[in-house]
């Protein structure tokens, strides 16, 4: 049962990250708007994040690459958190964007996404039991 859930989550993450990667590459404008000003070469960073999402999605599906892909996607999740915070600040301070009801769950869910990347990649078993050698 747990293996089936893990496989389903792996597929879901692969699809979501591949779609996000696609949009980062073909339509970077919305991502440029929310990228913090302190990020250098924002256009190139957004292109590289799209490529990283594609590679991570593909890596999740290849058993030999699953671990590195999980670590990479977990790190990616941490790295984009400032853009998510910036997005919330932009929307909430100018009153024309998405409401707090969107941003608060999104920000609070970020650790869950990080966990999901690591669990789907079989890097951790928590909370479902200890990892067997």
Automatic annotation (TrEMBL):
Keywords: Membrane, Transmembrane, Transmembrane helix. Pfam families: DoxX_2. This is DoxX family protein. InterPro entries: DoxX. GO terms for cellular component: membrane. It is found in: Membrane. It is a multi-pass membrane protein. The chain crosses the membrane at residues 7-25, 45-62, 69-89, 109-128. Its main location: membrane.
